[in-house]
């Protein structure tokens, strides 16, 4: 583990120092006004970013801030950004541009931007030159420094933008505070970064090289969560199958799953994401042997054409992928499979695309996340020949969407009259008297019930099947 620098309580006291400094300022204000300072954090992107935002919220709570949903009421506005697709940039600059008026009306408001986009130098350059109302900019590798950056900005007499973005990626920070969205389920990072360099992808540039947290730290965190009424754990990493590659001993991801499976009070274990090239027989067997491991697997295929997969540097063929799917279905016939697919990758022919449609029909995914290829600066695919027109990409996207939706609807029908165990998340967004939650396969299920069920696992009989949701009654 030589290149990994672990930052924990012993060499981490700096953060507490700055948290206290900001808290003292906020406490003084509170004594004068009776109002706590408010923050809003707008999060884009994947679970990694969501989890980073939970850590930022934890730090802010310790600094005496309260969360608000109302941009107008916030004293601190944070945008946690995602760089996976290009169109997000236009939207981001639009959103940030719109904050100019808020800042003009109230110059004391602090505006911060962080996340994957900040790891791209051209974004930081644009922000610092044209969006001077942004006050703090930090990246993905130094989130733990946020209290220091905030204190630095607050105490500046001549307000200038505080910019701190690192390209050093060897850190693992342990023990960050966290405010979670749900009391009963939690994300746990098991590794950071990615070494795969799929030719379309920006993540290895924004999140750095792969590094794994020690099993002791992970198990300790899960134990603590289990003692705090958490029932469901989702283990996070860009490629969980290469967990432990930087360890000197042979402690693998399936071994970690086995150890987590033994922890009392944890009832469900999920993980994402698995790279198909690395999914091992050992991991596949875990679905048969570990009772807490949920019957759901996200296995991004990206394309059904081996030619395109080669250009993508995915390092498996469509045949390899199908073989793994067969193995998985043999071990866990009831598993819900989900995937990610990119259409319109440079060089993708109509024939290649048809192979994707064919694969989707063969696998019968419960659901698929579909994307039109988007060129990212600095990636290998940016320089490839054969870029596809937007029109063709849209056409392929719509055809794929239709096929995938038909399959999802068909898979949903299989649930009719079945009894599902639902971990209740809260009231449904559409109807305040209806509860919604997820079964082990991660399907959203609605039923009528009262608040006392939130956070509980209840049995629900499916009575009504819709294309994208399932309704039932508690039994
Ligand atoms: N580490 C995960 C996924 C990370 S990004 C994995 O490897 O599976 C999530 C998804 O975004 C990817 O699976 C891919 O389908 C999509 N994606 C990534 N880069 C993209 C790009 N440049 N254009 C379109 N979709 C992209
Ligand atoms: Fe991106 Fe590929 Fe790494 Fe996933 S495995 S994060 S798609 S480079
Ligand atoms: Fe986006 Fe960064 Fe996740 S680019 S998808 S937020 S790792």
The global form is: globular
* Terminal Cα span: 51 Å
**Ligand identities:** S-adenosyl-L-homocysteine, iron/sulfur cluster, FE3-S4 cluster
How many structural domains? Answer: 4
**Count of helices?**
13
List low-confidence stretches.
none
Fourth CATH level, the homologous superfamily of the largest domain: Methylthiotransferase, N-terminal domain
What's the alpha carbon Rg, rounded to whole Å?
A: 23 Å
Could you tell me the strand content as a percent range?
Answer: 15-25%
Strand order of the largest sheet: 3-2-4-5-6-7
Name of the CATH first level of the largest domain = Alpha Beta
Describe the protein in words.
The protein folds into four domains: 4-164, Rossmann fold (3-Layer(aba) Sandwich); 182-294, Transcription Regulator spoIIAA (2-Layer Sandwich); 322-413, Transcription Regulator spoIIAA; 419-474, Beta Barrel (OB fold (Dihydrolipoamide Acetyltransferase, E2P)). 36% of the residues lie in helices and 21% in strands. The chain has helices at 13-33, 47-62, 87-105, 121-130, 146-155, 203-207, 215-227, 253-261, 281-289, 306-311, 318-331, 350-363, 390-413, and strands at 5-7, 38-43, 66-67, 76-81, 110-115, 136-138, 162-164, 171-173, 185-189, 191-192, 211-212, 232-236, 268-272, 296-298, 336-343, 367-372, 419-427, 434-438, 444-448, 457-465, 470-474. A six-stranded parallel sheet has the order 3-2-4-5-6-7, with helices on both faces. It is globular. The termini are far apart. Bound molecules: S-adenosyl-L-homocysteine, iron/sulfur cluster and FE3-S4 cluster (F3S). Iron/sulfur cluster (SF4) is lined by residues 194, 196-198, 201, 203-204, 238-239, 275.
């Amino acid at each position: 583990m030589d290149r990994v620098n672990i930052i924990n309580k012993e060499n981490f006291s700096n953060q507490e120092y700055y948290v206290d400094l900001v808290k003292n300022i906020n406490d003084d204000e509170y004594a004068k006004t009776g109002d706590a300072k408010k923050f809003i954090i707008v999060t884009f992107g994947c679970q990694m970013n969501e989890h980073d935002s939970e850590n930022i919220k934890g730090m802010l709570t310790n600094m005496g801030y309260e969360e608000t949903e109302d941009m107008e009421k916030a004293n601190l506005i944070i945008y946690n950004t995602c760089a996976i697709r290009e169109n997000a940039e236009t939207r981001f600059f639009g959103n940030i541009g719109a904050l100019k008026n808020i800042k003009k009306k109230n110059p004391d408001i602090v505006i911060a931007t962080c996340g994957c986009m900040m790891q791209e130098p051209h974004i930081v350059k644009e922000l610092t030159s044209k969006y001077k109302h942004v006050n703090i900019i930090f990246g993905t590798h130094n989130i733990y420094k946020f209290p220091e950056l905030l204190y630095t900005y607050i105490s500046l007499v001549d307000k200038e933008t505080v910019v701190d973005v690192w390209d050093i990626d060897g850190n693992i920070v342990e023990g960050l505070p966290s405010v979670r969205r749900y009391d009963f389920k939690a994300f746990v990072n098991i590794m950071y970064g990615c070494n795969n360099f799929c030719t379309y992808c920006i993540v290895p540039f924004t999140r750095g090289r792969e590094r794994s947290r020690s099993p002791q730290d992970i198990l300790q965190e899960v134990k603590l969560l289990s003692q705090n009424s958490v029932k469901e754990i989702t283990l996070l990493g860009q490629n969980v199958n290469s967990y432990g590659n930087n360890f000197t001993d042979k402690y693998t991801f399936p071994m970690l799953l086995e150890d987590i499976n033994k922890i009392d009070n944890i009832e469900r274990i999920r993980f994402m994401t698995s790279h198909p090239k690395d999914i091992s027989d050992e991991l596949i067997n875990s679905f048969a042997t570990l009772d807490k491991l949920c019957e759901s697997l996200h296995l991004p295929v990206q394309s059904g054409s081996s030619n395109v997969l080669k250009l993508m540097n995915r390092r498996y063929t469509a045949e390899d992928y199908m073989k793994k799917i067969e193995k998985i279905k043999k071990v866990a016939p009831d598993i819900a499979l989900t995937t990610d697919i990119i259409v319109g990758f440079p060089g993708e022919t109509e024939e290649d695309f048809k192979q994707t449609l064919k694969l989707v029909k063969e696998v019968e995914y419960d659901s698929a996340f579909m994307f039109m290829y988007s060129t990212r600066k600095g990636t290998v695919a940016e320089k490839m020949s054969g870029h596809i027109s937007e029109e063709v990409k849209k056409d392929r996207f719509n055809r794929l969407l239709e096929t995938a939706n038909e399959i999802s609807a068909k898979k949903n029908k299989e649930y009719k009259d079945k009894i599902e165990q639902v971990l209740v998340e809260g009231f449904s967004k559409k109807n305040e008297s209806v509860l919604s939650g997820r079964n082990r396969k991660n399907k959203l299920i609605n039923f009528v019930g009262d608040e006392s069920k939130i956070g509980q696992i209840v049995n629900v009989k499916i009575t009504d099947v819709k294309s994208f949701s399932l309704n039932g009654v508690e039994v």
